[in-house]
Amino acid sequence: MTGNALLGPEDCNCLAARQAARHITQFYDQFLAASGLRTTQFSILAKLRRLGPMTINALAAEMVMDRTTLGRNILPLERDGLIAVKKGRRDRRSKELRLTEAGAACFRAGVKGWTQAQKQFEAAFGATRTVDLRALLHAVAATDLGTADG
User: Fold this and answer.
1) I need a labelling partner for 77 at 20 to 30 A (CA). Which of 4, 29, 86, 138 fits?
2) How far, in Å, CA of 50 to CA of 38, rounded?
3) pTM, whole model, 2 decimals?
4) b or e along 25-44 (b: 16 or more beta carbons within 10 Å of the residue's beta carbon)?
5) Alpha-carbon torsion (39, 43, 44, 46), positive or negative
């Protein structure tokens, strides 16, 4: 904490980040609605498209998500045939996710809305601030924050 003053709830880093994340997610969801995807689903398809087939654990780490949360998010994608879940090639106990042709087509349909959201966000927030924000958020995600007992 900075200084000796006790900070209030309005100074909570976690709350501020979560509020901003929810605000931005709701904004992007509006633009992605026509594709039938939500922001998290679009991001999962984008990662699989860019990185290829991967295990649930690897994708969870890549998305900075809890494995259980990712599991809940992939269920509708699997149900709708946008991703395929198969036994892992290296470790038969693991599950590997891969983008299907239908998933690739759905992702391509979502790109238009995502691009519009990106442009409108930048117009509203400012080009320089948008680049700076993204760099700061990537830095936060890459920072070892330690643990509560460490």
Assistant:
1) 138
2) 18
3) 0.86
4) eeebbebbeebebbbbbbbb
5) positive
- Judge contact between 43 and 83, C-beta under 8 A: no
* Sign of the alpha-carbon torsion through 30, 35, 41, 43: negative
Q: Give me the torsion for CA of 21, 22, 27, 33, rounded to 10°.
A: 120
Instruction: Report yes or no: 59 and 41 within 8 Å, Cβ to Cβ.
Output: no
Taking the C-alpha atoms of residue 36 and residue 39, their distance in angstroms, rounded to an integer, is 10
pLDDT tens string, the chain, 150 residues long: the values are: 555 566 787 889 999 999 999 999 999 999 999 999 999 999 999 999 999 999 999 999 999 999 999 999 999 999 999 999 988 676 667 789 999 999 999 999 999 999 999 999 999 999 999 999 999 999 998 999 987 776
Angle (nearest 5°) at CA 81 between 79 and 87: 85
CA distance 54 to 96: 5
